[in-house]
Amino acid sequence: MNSKTNLINKLNDDLVNEYTHMHFYLQSSFLVQGINRAETSEWLAEHAESEFKHIQEFAKMIVGLGGVPVTAHKDIPSLFNPIEIFAYAYVLEREVVTNYVQRMEEVGIDYGLEDQDRKYVELFLEDQVLDSRGDLDEIAQFLKPTRMPS
Q1: Using a CB cutoff of 8 Å and minimum separation of 24, what contacts does 86-92 make?
Q2: What is the pLDDT, as a whole number, of residue 112?
Q3: Residue 35 is part of a domain; what is its CATH number?
Q4: What are the pLDDT digits (tens) for 18-64?
């Protein structure tokens, strides 16, 4: 049986990933180069803002469950090429989608949560899956080869 503390620790691991995403998107918005730099930089900055909202949501949930949110993030590479940036972002987003789906399955195991807390965490994670999967699909579009006009 897993404890509520174990769940909070896993949610804090997810929070670390959200901080990492925010830092990566923000730094990449500064560093990106190339012909579509302005548009790509704007897209990356908007996604950094979105990740900040995820950070706030995770932190509030962790506090609501009786935990203390972390503020750490993983190291990120300094990338300049838009394709490399989107390829790295794809890996980041795919990882969190996998983590959130796994976490949703784990919440069904007894973490010592009351029914309303369990349902809240399940719905919260479901929303995170939908959002991150949408980002993943959008990033995949950036990575598709460009078709040359005929």
Answers
A1: 86/139, 86/142, 86/143, 87/143, 88/24, 89/21, 89/24, 89/25, 89/28, 89/47, 89/135, 89/139, 90/136, 90/139, 90/140, 90/143, 92/17, 92/20, 92/21, 92/24
A2: 77
A3: 1.20.1260.10
A4: 999 999 999 999 999 999 999 999 999 999 999 999 999 999 999 99
Q: Assess if residue 121 is contained within a domain.
A: yes
Please say whether the beta carbons of 107 and 113 come within 8 A: yes
Instruction: Measure CA 9 to chain center.
Output: 16
Residue 136 lies in a domain: yes
* Alpha helices, H only, 32-114: 37-64, 82-107
| pTM greater than 0.85 (yes/no) | yes
